[in-house]
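Q: Convert this sequence to C-alpha cells.
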Amino acid sequence: MTKKLVELAWFAALCDDDYEFLGIADQDLQSSWLHCSDIVRRAELNGFDNVLLPSGYSLGIDATAFSAAIATLTNEIKLLLAVRLGELVVPQLARQIATLQQISNSRLVINAISSEMPGEHLSSESRYRRTTEYLYALGELLDGKTVNLEGEFLQLHIDPPRISAPGLGCPPIYFGGLSEAARDCAAASADVFLMWPDTTAKISSIVLDMTQRAQRHGRPMSFGWRSHVVVRETEREAREAARRLLSRLDSVTGDAIRAKSLDSTSTGVNRQNELRTAADDEGYIEQNLWTGVGRARSGAGIAIVGDPDQVTTKLNELIDVGVSAFILSGYPHLKECDLFAKYVLPKISHGPLSLAHTPATLD
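A:
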C-alpha cells in the first residue's frame, strides 16, 4: 500500500488523444460526447477520485460544455476542468465556474492554463504575468469580493456575480509550468503545482523550489504528477504493450501530431524532448519510466510501465519526494482505466485532496 492518502485522477481525452496505436486515427476513439462521457463514468465506477477534462482550441470538444453535462451523470468523482485563460473574459469565467459548482454539487476543480488567444503571440513572461492577474481577479470574484484592479493587462472594476458568494468560493487551482515566469505565477496563484514526468531527483528539486517560492507569498503548495501508465500482470507483458502502442507510428506523423499543440515550444515540452533524447534504446529514462509516448504527443510524453508492484513502487517513490496527486492516462483510455483499477488501485490509499483555494497574491 502507499504510505499516505493521495489523489488519483484519470484523463477524459477530450482533446483527440485516444488511440490503440499511437498516431493511427480511430473513429471509435475520436473525442465525442459519447466516448468521453464513457471514460468519465468508467473512471468513477472504478473508484478514481478525480478526472482531468483537457482543453485545446483546435483539438477535440469543448471542456466547459462537457463538464456541465457530465456533472449531471456523475455523483462522486471530482471534475478537473482545464481552462485556457487567454481565451476567456474573467467576469464571465467566474460566473461559469460558479454555475458549474452548483450543477456538480461543488465537485469542480480548475486546471488553469496560461494560454494565448488563438493567433496571439505574447512572450512567456508577459503571458504568465497576465495569468497571475487573471487568477487573482477570478479568485476574488468567486469569493464574492469586489475587484478594483488596474493591472498591466487587466483593468477591472466590478462587483462579483450574484451566483458567487462567500462559503462556496473559488475551487482549488491546479497549475503547471517549468519556466521562471511560470513558477512565479504558480507560487502566487496555484494550490497544486502540476509536473510532467521527470526523473525522481528532478521532481524532488522542483518540489523544494516551489515550496520555497510559495512560502514567500505566504501560501501552502501541494504537488501533482501527470503521466501515462502501462500496467500488465508481468513486466514483460507491460513492455510488450508499450512496444505495440508505437508499432505503427512513423516519425513524420509523430512530428505532425506534436506540432499541432499550442504549447509545442514551451519549456516543459522542451524538457520532455530532452528526456526522450537521453533515454536508452528502448526509450527508458529510469527503470519503468518510458519516454515513447512523447514520440506522438506534445506535453506529458512519459509513461510508467511495469507490473502492479513496479508501478506502485514508482508511485511510492514520487510520494516520498512530495507528490500527493496523480493524473494518469493510458491507451486506449477505457481499457487502461480498467487495468489500472484492477492491478494498482487496490494497492493505493487514495481519496480526493482535501484542499481549499488559498487567495492569490499580486506583487
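The longest helix spans residues 124-142.
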